[in-house]
Amino acid sequence: MSGGQLLIYGANGYTGRLVIREALEKGLRPILSGRNAVELDALGAEHGLQVRVAALDDDRALDGVLAGCGVVIHCAGPFSRTARPMAEACMRTGTHYLDITGEISVFEGMAALSKEAAAKGVMLMPGAGFDVVPSDCLAAFLKEQLPTATTLTLAFVGGSGLSRGTATTMTENIAEGGAVRRGGKIVRVPSAWRERDIDFGDKVRHTVTIPWGDVSTAWHSTRIPDIEVYTGVPRSTARAMKMTRYLGWLLATAPVQRWLKARIRSGAPGPSDAQRSTAQSRLWGEVRDAEGRVVQARLLAPDGYTLTARTAVAAAQKVLAGTFKPGFQTPSRAFGSGFILEIPGCTREIVPVVERSA
Questions:
Q1: Fold matches, 5-130+306-336 and 133-303+343-351
Q2: pLDDT single digits (tens) 208-217
Q3: Backbone angles phi, psi at 332, to 5 degrees
Q4: 46 backbone φψ class: left, alpha, beta (φ>0; ψ -120 to 50)
Q5: What confidence category does residue 164 fall into, taking pLDDT thresholds of 50, 70 and 90?
Q6: Which long-range contacts (CB under 8 A, 24 or more apart) does 336-340 make?
């Protein structure tokens, strides 16, 4: 099963609009979809594109929206609420599923649907954006360099700010703390559970553990049992993250959530084109095995939102051309660890590791 059209659901959101622009630059004519008819009609008129409107809780309308489509790029979060209904519609209609989530629960939920999707010849590949294409491909590359690896550490820094959607998802998850993988199992840990100084190539930065999507996906890609993901933050931010261990219950209450989300809505939709054009993302990874062998690598990439649009559209192009694997997939399992190097602006290097004497 291949061919068909590309559908972008949540096309009127901040990232959805970036995906539209990227798709048009690549010669695609996507169908625009979502639940806001007014905004979608304006977008469709602006770009001369077909529009199909449906809410995610209307199965019949959603199936009609997906009719004739080979793949959907699902951009409407929070994905903890929106991913399942779209994935189920994709399995009903034989449409391949891509999204741009970074939520561990969504990855694990899609993995649980793998057998059902495979039986219907449908690929479910969440995390087709900055979460988690570059880090997943880096993890797979490191495992190729050290097949005996038993621990994986990933880290990233950079970017140009947050979109409203990303900020809203983070706000909703603020009380959940962190997560790592131990012995192949996902384990909840406190916020900013561990701290580490990491050399990203331009300089050494302070980082803390976060519950990034690779805690889920890197296991499916590499089968490395122990996984941690870090991000660069000022030490003051690390201290604030630790405070949520004690105040998380308050931040999760309905009045505080309403106040935080109102502040998010009052801000800009996301980084401007100028901000994104000058920003870069830097990723670092390390694998170790039981014999003490170590391999490190770094990856330089564009701003996260720019990269999300590029990787999501590149993945959709591959699927439409017939390159896909039915069932739940990670980016590296679907397209190989070199997929990220096909994206303009991405480079990778192995970092020489100087072993310290005992």
A1: no
A2: 999 999 999 9
A3: -70, -35
A4: alpha
A5: very low
A6: 336/137, 336/140, 337/137, 337/138, 337/140, 337/141, 337/144, 338/137, 338/141, 339/133, 339/137, 339/311, 339/314, 339/315, 340/133, 340/134, 340/137, 340/138, 340/299, 340/301, 340/311
CATH architecture of 133-303+343-351: 2-Layer Sandwich (3.30)
Q: Is the pLDDT of residue 122 over 70?
A: yes
Question: Cα-atom radius of gyration of the chain, to the nearest Å?
Answer: 20
Handedness of CA 213, 143, 342, 95 (dihedral sign): negative
Residue 268 corresponds to which amino acid?
A: A
Cβ 95 vs Cβ 1: under 8 Å: no
Please report how the helices 14-25 and 37-47 are oriented relative to each other, as an axis angle in degrees rounded to 10.
Answer: 20
Q: Are 53 and 40 in contact (CB under 8 A)?
A: yes
DSSP-assigned letters across all residues of 31-57: EEEES-HHHHHHHHHHHT--EEE--TT
Q: What CA–CA distance (Å, rounded) separates 188 from 249?
A: 16
CATH class of 5-130+306-336: alpha beta
In terms of pLDDT, which residue wins out, 178 or 118? 118
